[in-house]
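User: Sequence in, structure out. Go.
Assistant: Echoing your sequence, followed by the structure tokens.
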Amino acid sequence: MTLTAPLAALGRLVLDMLASIGRIAIFAFQVVSHIFRPPFYPREFLNAVLQIGWFSLPVVGLTSLFTGGALALQIYAGGARYGAEAAVPSITAIGMVRELGPVLGGLMVAARVTSSIAAEIGTMKVTEQIDALTTLSTNPLKYLAVPRVVAAVLVVPVLVAVGDSIGIAGGWIVGINQLGFNSSTYIKNTVNFLQFWDIGSGLVKGAAFGFIIALMGVYHGMNSGRGAQGVGDATKSAVVAASVLILAANFLLTRVFFGS
């Protein structure tokens, strides 16, 4: 009995994990299946666009600006060992648009938005507002989940595009002020090196990350426990799950797009 206890505990952990994955997959399917079914709630959608997109711009912009500058410094320091300092503009640009822009933007939005959605919906569940929606013949899934998920899928790629531009600008600022690059040459090398799919792959990642961000917030909010502790646990679980899934999705999408 003592020898099999660790195996039994591991088995329970694996089964619980698989059950959680199944519940999230079913919930995601239900959300997607309701996107094109009436009724629609444009006011909730516009409010979600404002909360997810506009109010996330400062944190995404600042994160991208400092990341682009630090990336340029690191690439210059590494390239100087092999006489490849001229590659700073091109590698900074491709690093931002392919990886750092989407991933860091997604993580920053997840930290801000996923926690907010989970706390809001979890509080609604605790105060029985979700039950009130059902009583009023309003589907909570359509009213609470669909507008937020659709808004995140549409808005996060825009945030990623803005973050990419600001990150490249951060690298440009460091390049011309600290690393001795000529401004026009830096910009020319950046523009000539980037290809359409470099930018497009980052935007596709942004849409996928937006889906994850909103889905995890809504799912954990609707399944939160009772009381303040339940809402707190749901918020924590939502942010952790969204962050891990973003990193996993980034690896899978990068493997699909550039893994040949």
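User: And one key feature?
Assistant: Residues 50-255 form one domain.
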